[in-house]
Amino acid sequence: MSAIDPAWPVSEYAFPGPLRDQLVAALLDGTKTSTSSLLLEYSANEPLPRAGDRAVVVDSAGTPVAVETVTTVEVCRLAAVTLEHALAEGEGFESVDEWRSAHEGFWHSDEFRDSLGDPGFHVTDETEVVCVRMSVQTL
């Protein structure tokens, strides 16, 4: 693999700590090939990812551990996330309901709500989710 391009953005999964460590480990061992975020997390300063985009994945210590390359991006309603996407998240989900429960727990956490500046934030079936598929090369 070639050197890391300093123009590539940093890809951070969850917040530093046990969840990020779990997600990064799943990326590195190849079980995690998709990820989800909320459309409202993106802005004019951080556009939606596109196929071919690359980013440097960092662990909880901020150390670069891999380069991810986006292969597909789909924006859909929370209620429309597919089982295929949920399984590809590599977190052991066996159903969309399990995937949704875990993600709602994260999106409704104090830490996430604080990051949005909205202590009452709540997702619904209509909340738009960005479903990203990617390939990963370890460093």
From TrEMBL:
The residue ranges of the ASCH domain are 13-137
Q: Which InterPro entries did the record assign? A: ASCH_domain (IPR007374), DUF984 (IPR009326), PUA-like_sf (IPR015947)
Checking Pfam families in the record gives: ASCH
- Locate the transmembrane regions by residue number: none
> How is this protein named in the record?
Uncharacterized protein YhfF
Source organism (scientific name): Arthrobacter woluwensis
Q: Which SUPFAM superfamilies match?
A: PUA domain-like (SSF88697)
